[in-house]
Design brief:
InterPro entries: Nas2_N (IPR040815), PDZ_sf (IPR036034), PSMD9 (IPR035269). Keywords: Chaperone, Proteasome. This is 26S proteasome regulatory subunit. The structure is a single chain. The protein is α+β, with helices and mostly antiparallel strands. It folds into 2 domains: 81 residues; 84 residues, Pdz3 Domain, CATH 2.30.42.10. Helices cover 39% and strands 18% of the residues. It contains 4 helices and 5 strands, in the order ααβαβαβββ. It has a 5-stranded antiparallel beta sheet with strand order 4-3-2-1-5. α1 runs antiparallel to α2. It is rod-shaped, with a radius of gyration of 32 Å. About 3% of the residues have low confidence.
Length: 184
């Protein structure tokens, strides 16, 4: 990654030098492609031909350098994206703290896709059972992010569900599901 950052800094510097050289040509009243000879084929007397040729030469060299640098940046980017991504450290991995033991029909939890047996990993900002009630109450009539682990077709999946807790759905509680704490 440091190599890539170094290459990008070189690219930025090279592009700045190219702009400076273009400005130097503009100061002479020409561009990279302005003819330096008159219609008869003689050098224009109103131009400093030697300086312009030197600037154009450096521009060509720098433009070639930029092309090579861009190829190196492309290779470096590919190398960065081919590196295996660091796996979540076990200590940082969120672990389930509650199990859904009942989902009321027609309740906010059911409408969001919560199922019996889901293992609750996070409720809003709460990553433990003690903060759930406060999180749910604070999001009444709003949107609450619920992260659960579920086994689907024999494979574990982590799902992020959006629940809209509210009291007027016809049942008890704001979520319409029962959570049982998992001892840690």
């Amino acid at each position: 990654m440091d190599r890539l950052q170094d290459l990008v800094r070189q690219k930025t510097s090279l592009e700045a030098r190219l702009r400076a050289l273009d400005h130097a040509l503009a100061a002479h009243g020409v561009t990279r492609t302005t003819p330096l000879v008159d219609p008869s084929g003689f050098p224009r007397s109103d131009l400093d031909i030697n300086s312009i040729v030197d600037i154009r030469r450096e521009l060509n060299y720098k433009q070639n350098d930029l092309g090579q640098l861009m190829a190196e940046i492309e290779k470096a980017l590919q190398a960065v994206h081919q590196q295996p991504q660091p796996q979540e450290k076990e200590a940082e991995r969120l672990r389930g703290f509650a199990r859904i033991s009942g989902v009321a029909k027609g309740g906010p939890a059911e409408l969001a896709g919560v199922r019996d047996g889901d293992v609750v990993v996070r409720v809003g900002g709460a990553r433990g059972f003690s903060g759930v009630a406060e999180e749910v109450a604070g999001k009444a009539d709003g949107e609450l992010v619920l992260v659960v682990d579920r086994v689907v077709d024999g494979a574990p999946e982590r799902l992020t569900l959006a629940v809209r807790p509210h009291g007027g759905w016809g049942g008890g509680g704001l979520l319409g599901c029962r959570m049982t704490e998992i001892p840690q």
